[in-house]
Design a protein that fits this description.
Layout (H helix, E strand, L loop, with lengths): L1 H18 L15 H4 L4 H25 L5 H22 L11 H30 L4 E4 L3 E5 L6 E4 L3 E7 L6 E7 L3 E8 L3 E8 L5 E6 L2 E5 L4 H15 L1
Parallel strand pairs: 7-9
Antiparallel strand pairs: 1-2, 2-3, 4-8, 5-6, 6-7, 8-9
């Protein structure tokens, strides 16, 4: 954690230096250009725009590190989207308002239009992909005589040997608590969680389903469910059968 805060502090200092209009040596790409190429840019504008974007990302990262487990799932989505938009925004601005205007003809203008169009399409495409990733997906649970196999969505699979299950219970009064590690989308909760009843436990569940199956195992509690309460009850009875 100390190392992360040191990195955040260094990023904050670099952001402030750039915001002052200095520190162009910190800007990747610009610092490797020839002197003639660098003269095509307004150095102070480039530094300030890069510094502003970097400062926003640094502040958001500090918020994530400060609140940790208490951060809601939507904030992680917002963070990822903002990082993409800021990065692309810096690219657009550095090739438009940061460039010293010259009468270079229609070819240069056409090139800039193409670059802007490509970046705009990239933003839309990235947002669409992220929307699909966070809003779709399913958890697949396969029950056999020897094990219970859970296939996560954009998260690691989990296997429980039937001999490791000490007790199983079905409940509709369950508080998931906070996530300490894992991946959650618009309709899924997956990973390591912590609440008052179980303490640290593993969760693979659909948010909209209020029924949960709690598996008390030798390695700790594992909580699962299906898309609906009916399907969850059916899964519970199926697990009960293999444990008898």
């Amino acid at each position: 954690m100390i190392v992360i805060w040191i990195i955040i502090a260094l990023c904050g200092i670099c952001s402030l230096i750039l915001l002052s209009g200095r520190g162009s040596i910190l800007i990747a790409g610009y610092n490797t250009m020839s002197k003639e190429e660098q003269e095509q840019y307004d150095e102070k504008k480039l530094c300030r725009i890069t510094g502003a974007g970097m400062l926003v990302i640094t502040v958001l990262t500090a918020v994530l590190e400060t609140f940790g487990e208490k951060i809601p799932d939507w904030f992680w989505t917002l963070y990822a989207v903002l990082v993409i938009f800021i990065a692309v925004g810096i690219m657009i601005l550095s090739n438009t308002i940061c460039k010293i205007k010259e009468n270079t003809g229609s070819k240069k203008k056409s090139y800039n239009k193409v670059v802007i169009c490509i970046i705009a399409v990239s933003i839309v495409f990235s947002s669409l992909i992220m929307g699909i990733v966070f809003s779709k997906g399913k958890i697949e649970i396969a029950v056999s005589a020897n094990s219970l196999d859970i296939q996560g969505y954009w998260w690691s699979n989990y296997e429980i040997k039937t001999e490791e299950i000490e007790e199983v219970e079905l409940t509709e009064n369950f508080q998931t608590g906070t996530r300490t590690n894992g991946f959650s989308g618009a309709n899924l909760l997956q990973g390591e969680f912590k609440n008052k009843e179980q303490g640290k436990y593993t969760l693979y569940a659909y948010k909209d389903c209020k029924a949960y199956i709690i598996l008390h195992t030798k390695k700790g509690d594992v909580v699962i469910n299906e898309k609906t309460e009916k399907e969850t009850r059916e899964l519970y009875h199926e697990i009960e059968k293999i444990l008898k």
